[in-house]
Design brief:
about 45% strand; alpha+beta; seven-stranded mixed beta sheet
Length: about 140
């Protein structure tokens, strides 16, 4: 299978006018998306935390992370972005891909829109089930 690239706009959720657009490699082996540090700093994002990641070579590293809006193929998702090294290739991770309702078509090596984004226990039956559980928790909490 070859490489799949997609144009992605990264926005600062606190100031959506500040954004950067780039070509991202779709990486289904990565949970989170990677954006070069200088691009995130240029749109005013500051690291919110650090997370331990395991690289392809097995090495564990602590990397800065933030939350950003990612727009691609007409969808906008909120996602964790990892501060990549200077000049690193931007990567679109699987959580952003799936949140947007996409998968990779292995034959065409293009993004394929899913018929719907999965969301368990929602709708009339799911909402009623949620309310029932909330009532049960409330009764249990009062005892």
């Amino acid at each position: 299978m070859g490489a799949t690239y997609v144009d992605v706009t990264v926005r600062n959720p606190a100031d959506p006018e500040r954004s950067w657009r780039g070509k991202f490699l779709v990486d289904t082996g990565a949970f989170d998306s990677v954006v070069p540090r200088q691009r995130l700093e240029a749109i005013g994002l500051e690291p919110r935390s650090q997370r331990t990641y395991v690289l392809a070579n097995g090495e564990s590293v602590e990397l800065d992370i933030a939350i950003a809006e990612l727009e691609f193929e007409g969808e906008i998702v909120g996602g964790t972005v990892v501060y990549g090294a200077q000049g690193s290739e931007p990567l679109l991770g699987v959580t952003a891909l799936e949140s947007g309702g996409f998968e990779i078509n292995p034959r065409s090596e293009k993004l394929k829109r899913l018929p719907a984004v999965l969301l368990k226990a929602f709708g009339a039956a799911g909402a009623a089930g949620t309310r029932s559980r909330e009532k049960h928790v409330s009764k249990t909490a009062r005892r």
